[in-house]
């Protein structure tokens, strides 16, 4: 054996020894289970929808009017101010109103005295009539006198009724004067934001004169003109999806369908109550809001999470069966929120891999200890005008 051949055998022997030592490690690595996250294939209701342009409107808004007469002494709010219910918006000159209230208080006192006098006269007439009746069997009795006293008692009683009625009128006038005095301070009937100021200090106002415009921006709702053909599907309490510019979809519910149809557009106004706080999104009256109105009845469909779908010359989904990744060829349809409708290839209850599926091989062992790709799924709306099927 040559020296060269000996060196070759030595090197080859070392190589074989290394391969024998490393081989089990490589084999074990190839069989190591991949860590993945899964999400169940589910059956859920799908409702196709049509986008309808709507706008925010305030349930309470409009001019706040004076309810008393007088010159405006002070305006306590400016445009843009937020006020709470009962806040003072403006104050009127109260001198004339206070004088009127004082005059009516004096009149009430005068009328009360008249009633007291009438009662005293009636009481005296009754006493004299009673004494005359007791003399009926004596020589001092006079039938004519008895008739006069009876008439006097009746007149005194009528005077009490008349004086009492005048007193009640005086009390009503005093109540009105007091009310006018109290209303010299014009207050906000509800919380909101001042949108316009109609008057300035020094102006004279009467009952019904607008003082400010107030908008309750915390009670905004959405109004949309919905085609009459879509009205039957809109019942009170029905949840719908609302899209705002640049924001995540929001939810609202149908509050009322206005029973008045536009003869030109064949639409009816529908009011939706937001299930979110519009003020957080800086919503304002007149701002645009797209409402997804149901096109037809909901139907049950099979859906899979979007992250589970792999496109490789077709659409595939890895599902976990008996601890192994099984590749399924699928036919998917329209999207439903964060999921795809499955037309073929999967069954409800299958666990689809949504994380770690990019490097899986068919039949590879997997463990599902990863973070799930989706939380508990919910039914979603889908716009009929942008539904697009996908196929292989």
Task: Pick out its properties.
single chain; 392 residues; alpha+beta; conserved putative lor/sdh protein from methanococcus maripaludis s2 fold; Elongation Factor Tu (Ef-tu), domain 3; OB fold (Dihydrolipoamide Acetyltransferase, E2P); four-stranded antiparallel β-sheet; 3 helices; 25 strands; 37% strand; elongated; disordered N terminus; disordered C terminus
Please outline the helices and strands:
Layout: H1 3-30, E1 34-35, E2 37-40, E3 42-58, E4 61-65, E5 70-75, E6 82-83, E7 88-92, H2 95-134, H3 143-182, E8 185-187, E9 192-197, E10 204-205, E11 210-215, E12 220-227, E13 239-243, E14 250-262, E15 267-274, E16 288-294, E17 299-305, E18 309-311, E19 315-321, E20 324-329, E21 331-336, E22 339-344, E23 351-355, E24 366-367, E25 380-383
Parallel strand pairs: 1-24, 3-25
Antiparallel strand pairs: 2-23, 3-12, 3-16, 3-17, 4-11, 5-7, 5-10, 6-9, 7-8, 9-11, 12-15, 13-14, 13-16, 14-15, 17-22, 18-19, 19-20, 21-22
Helix pairs in contact: 2-3
């Amino acid at each position: 054996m040559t020296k060269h051949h000996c060196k070759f055998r030595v090197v080859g022997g070392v190589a074989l020894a290394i391969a024998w030592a490393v081989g089990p490690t490589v084999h074990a690595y190839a069989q190591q289970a991949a860590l993945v996250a899964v999400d169940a294939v589910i059956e859920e209701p799908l409702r196709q929808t049509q986008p309808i342009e709507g706008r925010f409107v305030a349930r309470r808004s409009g001019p706040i009017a004076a309810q008393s007469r007088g010159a405006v002494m002070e305006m306590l709010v400016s445009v843009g101010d937020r006020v709470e219910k009962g806040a003072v918006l403006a104050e009127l000159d109260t001198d004339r109103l206070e004088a009127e209230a004082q005059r009516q208080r004096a009149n009430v006192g005068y009328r009360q005295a008249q009633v007291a006098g009438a009662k005293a006269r009636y009481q005296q007439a009754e006493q004299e009539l009673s004494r005359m009746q007791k003399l009926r069997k004596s020589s001092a009795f006079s039938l004519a006198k008895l008739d006069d006293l009876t008439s006097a008692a009746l007149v005194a009683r009528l005077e009490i009724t008349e004086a009492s009625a005048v007193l009640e009128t005086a009390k009503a006038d005093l109540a009105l004067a007091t009310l006018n005095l109290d209303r010299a301070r014009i207050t906000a009937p509800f919380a909101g934001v001042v949108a316009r100021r109609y008057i300035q200090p020094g102006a004279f106002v009467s009952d019904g004169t607008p003082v400010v415009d107030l908008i309750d921006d915390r009670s905004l709702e959405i109004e949309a003109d919905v085609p009459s053909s879509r009205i039957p599907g809109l019942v009170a309490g029905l949840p719908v999806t609302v899209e705002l510019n640049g924001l995540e979809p929001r939810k609202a519910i149908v509050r009322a369908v206005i029973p008045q149809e536009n003869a030109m557009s064949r639409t009816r106004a529908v009011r939706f109550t937001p299930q979110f706080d519009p003020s957080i999104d800086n919503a304002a009256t007149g701002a645009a809001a797209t409402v997804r109105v149901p096109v037809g009845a909901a139907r049950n469909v099979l859906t899979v999470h979007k992250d589970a779908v792999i496109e490789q010359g077709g659409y595939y989904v890895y599902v976990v069966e008996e601890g192994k990744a099984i590749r399924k060829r699928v036919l998917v349809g329209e999207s439903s929120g964060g999921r795809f409708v499955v037309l073929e290839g999967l069954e409800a209850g299958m666990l689809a891999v949504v994380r770690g599926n990019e490097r899986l091989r068919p039949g590879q062992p997997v463990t599902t200890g990863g973070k799930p790709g989706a939380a508990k799924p919910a039914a979603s709306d889908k716009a009929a005008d942008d539904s697009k099927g996908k196929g292989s």
